[in-house]
Amino acid sequence: MKLITxxxxxxxxxxxxxxxxxxxxxxxxxxxxxxxxxxxxxxxFLAILGAFFGELFELFIMKVLRKDKNFVxxxxxxxxxxxxxxxxxxxxxxxxxxLGLVFALGVxxxxxxxxxxxxxxxxxxxxxxxxxxxxVQMTTWYKPTLSFSKWVDVQTTxxxxxxxxxxxxxxxxxxxxxxxxxxxxxxxxxxxLLLIGFAxxxxxxxxxxxxxxFYIGTVFVMSSFFYFAxxxxxxxxxxxxxxxxxxxxxxxxxxxxxxxxTIKGQAIFGIGAGVMTxxxxxxxxxxxxxxxxxxxxNAFVPLIDRYTQPRIxxxxxx
Length: 318
Hints:
Pfam families: NQR2_RnfD_RnfE
Structural class: mainly alpha
Number of domains: 1
Strand content: under 5%
Order of helices and strands: HHHHHHEEHHHHHHHH
CATH architecture: Orthogonal Bundle
CATH class: Mainly Alpha
Number of strands: 2
Family: Belongs to the NqrB/RnfD family.
Mean pLDDT: 91
Protein name: Ion-translocating oxidoreductase complex subunit D
Largest sheet: 2 strands, antiparallel
Enzyme class: translocase
Membrane topology: Multi-pass membrane protein
């Protein structure tokens, strides 16, 4: 029998990077429209600004700085811009937001070699940069306006997690947390709309299900133990619906580049992110820990992939 071998890849697909990125943008649209309704047109405007200037800045990096004359925009920078917009406060100035976008693309992405080479999630790295550099704007929260009008007076308030952190109790309904009628970052408040977008990605087979399952499951189990030990830690359902947990678990931790490739690795990643999220929420000075926990787990991804890779077919243990 004559065997014919050829160069990799041996598995081919009609999928392209622009198609995948377009699906991600479509999945984010429900939460973005919700952000417009909850916080006014400015919230939606930041997402548009992020998508447009993200692609423009990446084009500048590739054509001018990296001298890649054959580069064609693929939509990944637009996704980074939209995700960064969803992770900032509605009080963030547009020029501050653009500084974070420059850091996300220039430092967190292209300093490592560009798409597919970056270690950390660019949008979350940009958020961390803004949180350190402009803490007042990044931690000023608005009550939902419940109107699509741009000209609605806004009123500052605290997030449910911040209230729990300061007082040990919080008076907010689970329904409001679920639909998004609460203070928070632009794209994190409505769990319902995030789940709709997530369902689209699942249907399109663009998502790694193991990570959100183990991430959210770990938060539920761990917060249950803490709640039964001391109710001031907050109920498990409160921790799942509050803050940026759902946005982080469904759209940030599942990033194709910065998450593990193996099934076991994805489970480890989700468990680690869940544990660190609650440790930060419970014992650190900052009431939210989703972004930092995912960034910390990003750093362990190469190690996780190395020690969870499956055995080669036919390999015999020594």
